[in-house]
Amino acid sequence: MAKIVEVSSVAKDYGEGGIITHALRGVDLVLMAGEFTSMAGPSGSGKTTLLNIIGGLDRPSSGTVHIEGIEITQLPGTQLSRIRRDRIGFIFQSFNLIPVLTAFENAEYVLMLQNVDKEQRVERVMRVLREVGLEGLEHRFPRELSGGQQQRVAIARAIAPEPALVLADEPTANVDSETGRSLMELMRRLNEEKGITFLFSTHDRAVMERARRLIKLRDGQIIEDTEPRNL
Ligand SMILES: Nc1ncnc2c1ncn2[C@@H]1O[C@H](COP(=O)(O)OP(=O)(O)O)[C@@H](O)[C@H]1O
Ligand SMILES: [Mg+2]
User: Fold this and answer.
1) What is the pLDDT of residue 18?
2) How many CB atoms lie within 10 A of CB 36?
3) Would residue 107 count as lying in a domain?
4) How far is the CA of 46 from the centre of ligand 1 (A)?
5) Taking the CB of residue 29, how many other CB atoms lie within 10 A of it?
6) Domain count, the chain
7) Relative to the CA of 49, which ligand 1 atom is closest?
């Protein structure tokens, strides 16, 4: 099995001079292709910081991050953006859809940046929207969709470019628990059927329970790394 992510001795400090926050203090983590992993930990434990560093949205103060064997922490911006665009999907707590674009256009957007031709874009976007259960709602704007449906659009957008890795920062935090469970079922199915590697951060029991591997973070360090269920 291929290593998708390798985090080695990553530290992240915020602030300078007076008050410095040690958001991460020496994190080591390997994710293999096809894993479905949750990161749990109290607010402020460093979950978002770690996801942002793995996804190349932020750079560590020290340490290295490899994505599919490529060390990303020293890459120039243009190369890093390309890896982010082509290999990594992001799902956020607050959905982060573009309000003036329809569900279809939100999911299509990255494919346009990738210069995928129109015919292929339509084919792929219609397929992923069907896969996330939004058939018939392609032309709705985000404000015309429920929170759960908006998060399904965000999932479709994340998987449309066929990434190796999807990072999801508290993806169920803004929906009710029943909707959260169904979103987790969906992502689990995408993981099993398409082999996409997922890494979540969460406070939510239902998310932790769906994970095959559970990592606990506290004060910027991994304090536990277990496989609670062998499914
Ligand atoms: N941009 C920032 N500037 C300063 N401190 C930050 C910044 N982002 C996060 N922090 C601090 O880093 C620590 C970890 O934050 P975060 O990664 O957001 O934790 P979590 O997602 O687990 O709640 C917290 O103490 C937080 O206040
Ligand atoms: Mg967070």
Assistant:
1) 83
2) 22
3) yes
4) 6
5) 18
6) 1
7) 17
